[in-house]
Amino acid sequence: MKEYENASSEISEQIHGSIPPSVVSAIPPSTSAAITDCDVLIVGGGINGCGIARDLAGRGFRVLLCEKDDLAAHTSSSSTKLIHGGLRYLEYYEFSLVRKALQEREVLLKSAPHIMWPLRFVMPHDPSMRPAWMVRIGLFMYDHLAKREVLPGSRAIDLRSHAAGEPLKPQFKRGFVYSDGWVDDARLVVLNALDARAKGAEVLTRTRCVSARRDVDGWTALLESAGGAQRTVRARAVVNAAGPWAESFLRGVAHAAKGEALATRHLRLVKGSHIVVPRLFKHDHAYIFQNPDKRIIFAIPYQDYFTLIGTTDIELNGDDPGAARIGADEIDYLCTQASRYFEKPIVPADVVWTYSGVRPLLDDDSGDPSAVTRDYLLESNTGAAPLLSVWGGKITTFRKLAEDAADEVGRMLGDARPAWTEGAFLAGGDLSGWIGTAARPDDDFERFVAAVGSKYPWLDAALARRLARAYGARISNVIGDAQSTADLGAAVAPGLHERELRYLHNEEWACSGDDVLWRRSKLGLHLTRQEREQVGTWMEINTSSQEGIAACN
């Protein structure tokens, strides 16, 4: 017994030796023996938090990321799913933002061709909105603000003969076509988290940072899981990537020295809502529509059998960002504006699914929410241990934001390390082992699907394509040593087998039916209510095991 006490004392000394006595005494007794040391604690598991975790881990920093819900549970799974420069931002003279985003398009498309691909957009010309010469100038700038290797340039089209004109009202006789890209936004977040973990980061979902106190030498943070288990983390620096909660984190969770204010910026929380309706057209182009209120909306091919329409800009004033839901007025707005262009009117009864997200935009005193800048700001605070807060941003520029953030963290810690993500693949994005040398991302993916079909000839073609889209080169991690469909386990829902569900739970932090059906995939759109409930029940049962509880609680 004496030997045990001595050993315990030595371990405690090793754990607490580098921590100031005042900090140790402030740690609750129940957690004081379980302290994790890291270089950087990142709060927030959206695209910015996971992107920063990936970048920092790849530079060799010890990283711990905590997210209070699921990865991409909020803003980062509620975008319009576009990798784009933001054509409309040219009207607000946001040339730097547009150029930065345009430069990132092809970098991202090449990094993960399974979840991102080029997409052509059709803009029907409405003379009452903007004159044709203005549209041409805008598209010329859009084509030339950044180098393009993959994406074709813009051109004028005759809608009376082009396939894109068929579903439109006959009054729209001419239009313009230009290029941007599509992304599965929630999977993009997961791929960054997978890369971060592969490079040594620890990723904790359903884990809230309930308190973070800083001193001269570092931060002491108390983390709490959904099941109530607590854990103390000692970090050299904190990155506040809490998105819509970034300001409230500074005002309520992070504690500074007496008299010091950590929150110096204000966010404008703007809700963007989308509707999904049965497919409105058969071609593979998307539409961008100009509206009388000077805003734009998109109509995009979605999940093979649907059309995605969005978005709105509704400012939240004091409402909980996590509770954002579409309003009847937003549904009416999107239906009305889309019906100005489509020959067949769209009505609220057509809507099969909706989603809403809250954009955390940096307050720049713009009166119109749609005019608030989408650019990001990284704010450093070195009054004591380093703190970096991420304000604003958009999904297209996440990699550059993460690179800039990692540069700044290194500077604050006095340990600058080189950037590495430009030109690097995301998890599953390197298809060379399947197809050889890469060429064009969209062509590469089709070659990859063919290779998957050759390797797994027993796999249903539609299922093979879906798995290839979701997992890319990691598809073998999902299928494993299966030699037939029966080896994938029981079909919990059509096209969704037990082996894939176990993979999602064990490898991708999926803990609930919603995690699987609406974030790791969009299978929820294709299933009945009963089938969705079956998936939820399976996940509930199988995450109730001892291992499952550890991962999800």
Structure description:
- It is a single chain.
- By secondary structure, this protein is α/β, with parallel strands linked by helices.
- Helices cover 34% and strands 23% of the residues.
- The protein is built from 17 helices and 21 strands.
- The strands form 3 sheets. Strands 3, 4, 5, 6, 12, 13, 14, 15, 16 and 17 form a 10-stranded mixed β-sheet that branches.
- Helix 3 packs across helix 9.
- The longest helix has 17 residues, at 95-111.
- The two termini are 34 Å apart.
Structural class: alpha/beta
Give the C-alpha Rg. 24 Å
Distance between the termini: 34 Å
How much β-strand is present in the residues?
A: 15-25%
Outline the biggest β-sheet. 10 strands, mixed
- Label the overall shape: globular
Helicity range: 25-40%
**Which stretches are poorly predicted, pLDDT < 50 over at least 5 residues?**
1-33
Count of helix runs:
17
- The overall pLDDT average reads 90
Describe the structure using short key phrases.
single chain, 21 strands, globular, ten-stranded mixed beta sheet, 553 residues, 23% strand, alpha/beta, nine-stranded mixed beta sheet
Topology of this protein?
Blueprint: H1 2-16, H2 21-26, E1 35-43, H3 47-58, E2 63-66, E3 82-83, H4 95-111, E4 116-124, H5 132-144, E5 155-158, E6 174-183, H6 185-198, E7 202-204, E8 207-214, E9 219-225, E10 230-240, H7 246-253, E11 254-255, E12 267-278, E13 286-290, E14 296-302, E15 306-310, E16 314-315, H8 328-339, E17 353-362, E18 376-381, E19 387-392, H9 398-412, H10 432-435, H11 441-455, H12 461-471, H13 475-479, E20 491-493, E21 496-497, H14 498-507, H15 513-520, H16 529-542, H17 546-552
Parallel strand pairs: 1-2, 1-10, 2-7, 4-13, 8-11, 10-19
Antiparallel strand pairs: 3-6, 4-6, 5-6, 8-9, 9-10, 12-15, 12-16, 12-17, 13-14, 14-15, 18-19, 20-21
